[in-house]
Every structure is written in C-alpha cells, then in structure tokens.
Amino acid sequence: MAGDTAVPPPVASGPIVAASAEPFVDKGLAAGKVGTLAGAVLGISCVAPGYTLTASIGLIVAAVGLKMPAILIAGFIPMFLTAYAYRELNSRVPDCGASFTWSAKAFGPYTGWMCGWGMVMASVIVLSNLASIAVEFCYLFLARIFSDPGIADLAGNKGINIATTLLFLAVATFIASRGITTSQHVQYVLVGFQMIVLLAFAVVALVHVGRGAAPGSLGFSFDWFNPFTGITLSAFAVGLTGSIFAFWGWDTCLTLGEESKDPTKVPGRAGLLCVLSILLTYLLVAVAVMMYAGVGASGLGLGNEENAGNVFGALADPVLGGWAGPLLMLAVLASSAASLQTTFLPAARTMLAMGAYGAFPNKFAEVSPRFLVPSFSTIVAGVVTGVFYTVVTLLSEHTLLDTVAALGIMICWYYGITAFACVWYFRGELFSSVRNAVFKLLFPLLGGLMLATVFVISVRESMNPDNGSGASVGGVGLVFFMGFGMLCLGAVLMSVMRWRNPEFFRDNTLTRQTPVISDDAVVIRVDKR
C-alpha cells in the first residue's frame, strides 16, 4: 500500500453504508423501495417471457429441433451459476453499477469500462427488439379487434414500423423517468396478466394434444431434455445463444441494490427467484407447443420460417380459439411493452454509475430530484435505441432474428466477465469455508467458463450470414457487426474517455480497495500495484 489519497465523491450527498458490505457512494436514488417479490417481478418483466418465447422459439427450433427443452436447460445452467456470482458480489458491494462496478473493482478500470459498455449495448439491442415485437403485436391485436387483416400488414411497412417503434420508445422512456414505485405498480399487473395467459395457453395446448386434436400431436419424450445426442456443436452454439437470450434480464434485480429494502440480501434473492420462475415457465410452454404443433417446416410447425419471428401469432387462434386468441396477442403486447419500460432500469443505472465514477461524462450522473431516477441516462438510452433500431431496420429485412443472435454475444461478454470477477474479487477467502468454495468459486467459475465458450463460438458463427437473417456487410454477417462490432466500437470510445477523463482510468474514482467513510467525503485507499 503506497499511501492514502482523499478523493471527493463524484456525486452529491454522501455514502450509504450497508451492514457487512463495502460502503458506496450515494447516487441519489430512492432507497428502501424494492422488496424481494417486487425485485423478482421487475426481473421477470425485463425478461418478458411472453415476448421472449415468441421471438426465440423459432430460432431455437431452427437450430436444434426437438432438443429445444435441452437447450433451454443448457441456457439456464450458466445463468443460474452466474446468478450466484451476482448474489455474492452484491452482498459485498450493493452498487447500481452492478457488473461495471464489480468488474472494475476486481480487474481494474479498463475491464470494468468494457463490461459496463457491453451491458449498456445489450440493453440497447434488446430495447430495439422489444419495441419491434410490441409494434407487431399492437397491429395484430388491432387487426383482430377491428376485423381488418390489412391493419396487421402495417407492421411490415418500414416507414410506419419505424415511426410506431419510435413512438413506443418515447412513451417507455417517459414512464421509466417517473420513478421506481410507479414501475413496480405497473409491473405487478402486466407480469401477472402475461403469466396467467401463458399458463392457460400451455394447458389448453396440452388438452388439445390429449384429445388428439393437435396438428403435430407429438408424444412426450425425455430425450428432448438430453443435450448430448442429436446436436452438432455449431447447432448447439446457435441454439444456446437463443436460449441465453431467453433468460436475459434477470440481472435487473441486481441493479436495484441501492433502491432495495435490504441492499445486501434482497437483490440476490430476487434474482434467483426470477431465474427459477422463468425456467419453469419456459419448459412448460416449450413442451406444450412442441407437442401441439411439432417442429415441421410447414403449416403451424415450429420450424416454419414464416412463423419463426412470431410463433404465438401463428398459434394463438388454433390453440385458444377465435374468441380467446387475441388474449395471447394482448399478453405478448403487454409483455413487450412492460419489458420495454423495465429494460431502461439496468441500462440507465449502469450509465448513472459510470457517470458517477467518471467512466462516462458527468452528465450521466444526473438524478431527477423529484422522481429520484437517472433522468439523463434514461433519455440517452431511449435516443440511442431509436437510432440503432432505425439503422438496423433499414439494413435488414429480418431485424428481430439478427438482434436476438447479436444479443447472445453481448450477454455472454458481460455476464462472463462478472462471473470471473466474483472469483477474483473474493480470491482471498475462497477456501475459508465450504460455502465460499461453492458459491464464490465453483459456481461462478463454471458459469464464466461456459459463457466464455459460447461467446467465442457465437462470434465465429456470427460471421456467417446464414446463421442470422442472411443480411451481410462486405460478405460478413450483420450479426457480427451488431454483436462483436459493438464491443470494438466500445474499445474506441473507451480510448476517447481515457483521454478526456483519465482519473477513472488511474484508479482514482473507483478503486479495488474498500473505501473508508468519513462524515463528508469518501477516502479511497489507492492500490498502486
């Protein structure tokens, strides 16, 4: 230890100190508002099972066919293992920057910056995806209500589609800027509605199968859950990318640490509850639609390319009937609209933390004094998402498929770094108890290795246009530029920030050492290693 350097906190009032946790800088968010159930609901809302299933089932079936349940479980395993890394890190450093803050404290500012960038860009990609689904189901629902099929075709008009998507993004940005309590109340209703409809849809589909009235009528097989037979490595990687996408968003619970009733315990518990709830829902729906529709490439088959981007749109009426079919469309619309709003939460809070610690311009650290939310960061997230969606839609006829594949790359990047950060951050206490060896070493390490492997394979496969929508730039798949290309852009922007604001990159604003709290400042012990 070379010495102590006093550095005033980058933001406002002073620190919050949680029992048995490292103190952290108070960024001005609303403290004590989120409990375990509310955190889990917000996480489920961000995952958005309704919209995620209709967007990813086609992608997964196209890659692995009847092995969809096995791939869903395979995608769940690294998420589940990594959730323990998040839980342990949050119990020690309950900071809204989450992956950014933890990776910076474990590996230093450069890794932290790139991890935070990956998280923000993953949010931007999925926000554009959410808006696209919301627009499509909005017009589908209106077409059914007014008995005019022509209304549904409006979603295919690029001009109308982009304009409507930008409107959805503007509304979601506005709601996200109104405070965390408002978000909780809205999500209780929307999440409850979509989960009830999904459960009803799965049960009715299985009833049709039992009566012999299903077009696919597949018999149940435990082999569907075995990932070790009947799948090539490349198909497994593509399917796993879609599966990992399907679980993305549960870490929203962990970015709400500073707003939780017990910052060291509530976010971790909410994250685990969210992940387990989502897995059970996915497996039930996946088995039900496979047994009902089959995986064929024609008709209602899940392998039909015409249904790939919107499976529920094709199955709603056949399963639920003409009178109840619109409920499934409404559930997906509610799911995507709800997630569109909650997905702003982790993105804005990560940018808030990056602004507070000097990794982003100070403007990003602004918090609304009335609603206690990161106002500027929320607006930036909305604007950047709108620009991203517009550009990608003009480049590709199948934006949805490409964004799903690209998101898998971004997720593996920052989740993987976070998992490894847990192992390194707690390296001095890994073998002090059996609990530490399991939850701070074994689980995070296995999760990180799995995610790193999928990341490498996914980047390689993304260069082939055939593994996405077919769109390419210079013969290289568009998915590669949307995924790995975004990380390269982040490296360039990090160099710019290093030049403009070197203090963060000198370990002067967010260090690897535990801050020592005084009455009016944060005194940081600077590690000179």
Protein model, in words:
The protein is mainly alpha-helical and 529 residues long. It has a single domain (3-526), classed as Amino acid/polyamine transporter I. The protein has 20 helices and 7 strands. The strands form 3 sheets. A 3-stranded antiparallel β-sheet has the order 1-7-6, with no helix packed on it. Strands 2-3 form a two-stranded antiparallel ribbon. β2 and β3 (24-25) form a beta hairpin. α12 (311-320) packs antiparallel against α13 and α14 (344-356) packs across α15 (375-395). The radius of gyration is 22 Å and the shape is globular. The N and C termini lie close together (8 Å).
Name the strands of the widest sheet in spatial order.
Answer: 1-7-6
Low-confidence stretches: 1-20, 514-529
Q: What's the total helix number?
A: 20
Average of per-residue pLDDT values: 82
Radius of gyration, whole Å: 22 Å
Major sheet, described briefly?
3 strands, antiparallel
Shape: globular
Count of discrete structural domains: 1
**CATH homologous superfamily title:** Amino acid/polyamine transporter I
Determine and state the CATH class.
Mainly Alpha
Strand content: under 5%
Output the structural class: mainly alpha
Q: Sketch the topology as an H/E string, one letter per element.
A: EEEHHHHHHHHHHHHHHHHHEEHHHEE
The CATH architecture: Up-down Bundle
User: Based on the structure, what is the oligomeric state of the protein chains?
Assistant: single chain
CATH topology: Amino acid/polyamine transporter I
Cα distance, first to last residue? 8 Å
Fraction of residues in helices? 55-70%
Would you report the number of β strands? 7
